[in-house]
From TrEMBL:
UniProt key word Nucleotide-binding: yes
Entry's Gene Ontology molecular function annotations: ATP binding
Keyword check for Cell division: no
Positions of the ABC transporter domain: 6-236
Protein name per its UniProtKB record: ABC transporter ATP-binding protein
One Pfam family cited in the UniProt record for this chain: DrrA1-3_C
UniProt keyword annotations, A-Z: ATP-binding, Nucleotide-binding, Transport
PROSITE patterns in the cross-refs: ABC_TRANSPORTER_2
């Protein structure tokens, strides 16, 4: 197999007593969109900053493009694009000049740079705003400028740290589409977020992070296979006895039944034929019911089962 683009082994980063990254392991292969998913404070940004050699760390090894990453790894850094969580542009420069400045850190040839800057402007949809100063841009447009600054030099590896926080839906979709397009053009992407829908939508693989640890890595389907919960059945029912609830719990694959606000929630450990068995039971007992829903687990269920808490706090 080819060398991973990023290889992190046993990374530990402490801020005094706080262990922000705790024996973290991760491999990212060329062409992936790797989603680093975790709640606020789980250590995503710290991990990224360690990988980029912007932060020193206490233990572990980090390789990028097959070489140990160090603060002066300029050859590797040239091939990396970073879009930080906090918008980092110059207020005194307009849209064009901001992108030109960041692109100019890597691309010295003026003609090529002009082409790259124009392409980046086009790519993020800021053609009508070239002369605008950052203070005149809406939150969503500012984020797009931030992205253009990070990707104008056509990096092979791109880190995007929560690029859609506080962004309107139109800009958000544009950003997500843009990330997919960058990936189609050949870039490997590391995308950190605490929005599971976004991660599920665009990432080829996901690493679930909590309290500095990588709890599990896999495709969405692989992660869902790792947990016990495979199907969640909800049934609206006016009344049901404790005896019937106990009997439902005895059905094959059922491992938990709760009844609250006239809603029966049944958790099943296998995703096949559960609904038929449950409805059969209710019908033989002459229990009338209303709407019935069957859902597959979400990434939030994966997170909940692995950590005991919701992803959205
Ligand atoms: N410079 C710092 N000094 C001390 N503690 C820090 C520092 N930076 C981060 N931390 C702490 O380290 C932990 C991990 O923070 P980090 O910002 O890496 O998490 P995150 O998952 O990126 O969160 P968010 O989604 O809010 O950005 C948190 O408890 C945070 O308070």
């Amino acid at each position: 197999m080819s060398t991973p683009v990023i290889k992190v082994e046993n990374l530990v980063k402490r801020y005094k007593e706080l262990i922000a990254v705790d024996h973290f392991n991760l491999e990212i292969r060329e062409g992936e969109i790797l989603g680093l998913l975790g709640p606020n404070g789980s250590g995503k940004t710290t991990t990224i900053n360690c990988i980029l050699s912007l932060l020193s760390y206490d233990k572990g090894t980090i390789e990028v493009f097959g070489k140990e990453m160090q603060p002066d790894s300029y050859d590797s850094k040239r091939k990396i694009g970073v879009v930080m969580q906090n918008v980092a542009v110059f207020d005194a420069l307009n849209v064009y000049d901001n992108i030109d400045y960041f692109c100019g850190l890597y691309i010295k040839d003026k003609q090529l740079r002009r082409q790259y800057v124009e392409e980046a402007i086009e790519f993020v949809g800021l053609s009508d705003y070239k002369k605008f100063y950052p203070k005149k841009l809406s939150g969503g447009l500012l984020r797009r400028l931030n992205i253009a600054c990070g990707i104008a030099h056509k990096p092979k590896l791109i880190f995007l740290d929560e690029p859609t926080v506080a962004v309107d839906p139109q800009s958000r979709n544009r950003i997500l589409e843009g990330i997919l397009e960058l990936n189609r053009q050949g870039a490997t992407i590391v995308y950190t977020s605490h929005y599971m829908e976004e991660v599920e939508q665009i990432c080829t693989r996901i690493a679930i992070m909590d309290k500095g640890k990588n709890l599990a890595t896999g495709t969405t389907d692989e992660l869902k296979q790792m947990i016990k919960k495979k199907e969640i059945i909800s049934i609206e029912i006016l009344d049901i006895s404790d005896e019937d609830i106990l009997a439902l719990k005895e059905l094959k694959n059922v491992y938990d039944v709760t009844y609250e606000n006239h809603k029966l929630t049944i958790l099943c450990s296998n995703g096949k034929h559960n609904l038929i068995h449950i409805l059969d039971y209710l019908q033989t007992k002459n229990l009338s019911f209303g709407r019935v829903y069957s859902e597959l687990p979400t990434l939030n269920d994966v997170f909940l089962e692995m950590t005991g808490k919701e992803l959205r706090d």
